[in-house]
Structures are given as structure tokens and as C-alpha cells.
Amino acid sequence: MLYVQIERWPVAGSFVISRGAKTEAVTVVAEVSHSGRTGRGECVPYPRYGETPEATLAALQAMQGPVSSGLDRQALRAAMPAGAARNALDCALLDLEAKTSGQRVWSLLGRPAPAACITAYTISLGTPDAMAAATAKAAHRPLLKIKLGGDGDGLRIAAVRKAAPRSELIVDANEAWTPHDLERNLAACAEMGVTLVEQPLPAGHDEALARIARPVAVCADESVHDRASLEGLRERYDAVNIKLDKTGGLTEAMAMADAAQALGFDIMIGCMVATSLAMAPAMLLAQQARFVDLDGPLLLARDRDGGLRYDGSLVYPPEPALWG
């Protein structure tokens, strides 16, 4: 049996990127039950990719028949396109497999047991002064992810660096830069000791990255979705951000991480703003990642009960009752 519902989780304050602000995380949760056991998966429909909670809910509800007939994860990849809906169902099926077998999910998949790791903590886009103030409160964290947005980004990153002189910085422009300001902004980031710049140019219009000397490593996010999208990015990017909502679940994400590393990409494991149920499967990939960005629950006013354990910026693997 498949049960699906939309959930709404208030954000602590607001979460601002170059495309706008949000005050709540809207997630879709899939639950697959069989023989008295239930597996769960959570996804975040993303308007950037034409997804809505209602359409995601409908897409999952349409899978009631196949799920009742014993649909497995391998058949799921052929039955649904990559995206948020398939992610929720893939993770729910994995959770159910683990609960049915009495094993942790990483043992089922032949993967090493995940260990606690450092996650980035996100600073929302704002004025340089506002971002500096927010950064000062988080300056004790070892890894900060700074949202940028175009004009004035040099001033923003300088203000952030002054407020957090010892933190490692990665920045995310969310496609807001242009070929005209690309080199100037990359130089400003390099001057401030930024380690990684995420998706500076719009997906599909990022050819300039192949024509310049990049003083800072550049990571693809909106430009990369699954294994098929990797090969064409080799001259433009140094790293790829793998998110389960883009790949359509952990099953594809694991294969993608292996393929990306074989091509020489560094790995970043990313997330949307969501609860610990959405973060938990991604913890299996954190061991392969140079950068882990699983701070979604830290940005919420509250997490779901039994969520992941966060000790500052250290995030621990899920307990069986949560997932896997």
C-alpha cells in the first residue's frame, strides 16, 4: 500500500537565494507499507524544474497500482522520470527493504556504514551588512555556504570573510552571474579564500566556464542531474552537486557518485530545505564527498520527531526509526 501526503515545515526566519525567499519548506512524503512494516521517503518539489507539491503528489498517487503489485527500485527507474517524486518513492522502498530484512540499508547496498561528518551551514542572500551579521552568529562553524545573487557579490563575500575569518567558505550563486561578471566575481572569491563556487552561470548557458582560467574550483548544480549529464560538463566544472531530488532517489545518486568520481569530479552532497527524513538517505553518500551540505533541518523552526542528531555542524547517521 502507498500513502502520500504534503507536509509544511516553517523556516526559521526566511531562506533567501537569488531566485527569491521562502518562509516554509513544502515537502511530499511517501509511505510504502507491506506485512505490517512501513518505509518512508521525503522529497522537495522544486519550481526551478517545473515541479509543484500537487503534481508530485499526483505522480506518486498514480504509482499505487505498481507499488501494490510489487514494484521494486530497479523497475521504478524505468517507471518514473528522475525528480522529486521518484526520490520519495525510491527512498521509501529502500527503507522498507531495510526494515523487512532487519539490516541497515548500507549493509543491503554493500556500502560502508556512514560516519558523522561536517555539514555546511547556509547564510542567506542579503545586503553585505545583513550577511555579515548572520555570518558572525555562525562564525564558529567550520564550513559555511554563502548564497550570492549578482550585483554587489564582491562586497558580500568580503563582508562575510571579515565576519568569519577562520571558516572554510563555499559560495552558491544559483545561476545569478553572467559571462560579463564571471571572472571578476571568481577573482573576488579567490581573494577572500573561497574554496568552491557553485553554479555561477545559468544551466545551458555556462560555456564561458570552459574558456577561462578558473582561480577557484567550480561546482555544477542546476547543470547536472544524473549520470547522463556528466560527460558534457568535464571542461566546465571541477565538481558536481548530487541531490537526491534531482537524481530521482538514492539508487541513481549512488551510481552517479561513482560515475562522477571515475570522471575526475569532486563530489558535493547537497539538499533542499527539508526535514531529517530527506537528509538521512544522503548520509550514505557523504563518505564519498569532498563537501557535505545537509543542513536543511538546521534552517527549519523545528525538525520532525526522531530527526538526525546535529552537534553543531557535525551530523550523525540516522537511527533505524527515522530511516534505513
Describe the structure.
The chain has 324 residues and is α/β, with parallel strands linked by helices. It has 2 domains: 2-109, Enolase-like, domain 1 (2-Layer Sandwich), CATH 3.30.390.10; 117-315, Alpha-Beta Barrel (TIM Barrel), CATH 3.20.20. Helices cover 30% and strands 23% of the residues. The strands form 3 sheets. An 8-stranded parallel beta sheet has the order 5-6-7-8-9-10-11-12. The chain has a 3-stranded antiparallel beta sheet with strand order 1-2-3. Strands 4-14-13 form a 3-stranded antiparallel beta sheet, with no helix packed on it. Helix 7 (153-163) runs parallel beside helix 8 (182-191). The longest helix has 18 residues, at 84-101. It is globular, with a radius of gyration of 19 Å.
Topology:
Blueprint: E1 2-17, E2 20-34, E3 37-43, H1 53-61, H2 64-68, H3 73-79, H4 84-101, H5 105-109, E4 117-118, E5 121-123, H6 128-137, E6 143-147, H7 153-163, E7 168-172, H8 182-191, E8 196-198, E9 217-220, E10 239-242, H9 244-247, H10 250-262, E11 266-269, H11 276-279, E12 291-292, E13 310-311, E14 314-315
Parallel strand pairs: 5-6, 6-7, 7-8, 8-9, 9-10, 10-11, 11-12
Antiparallel strand pairs: 1-2, 2-3, 4-14, 13-14
Helix pairs in contact: 1-4, 6-7, 7-8
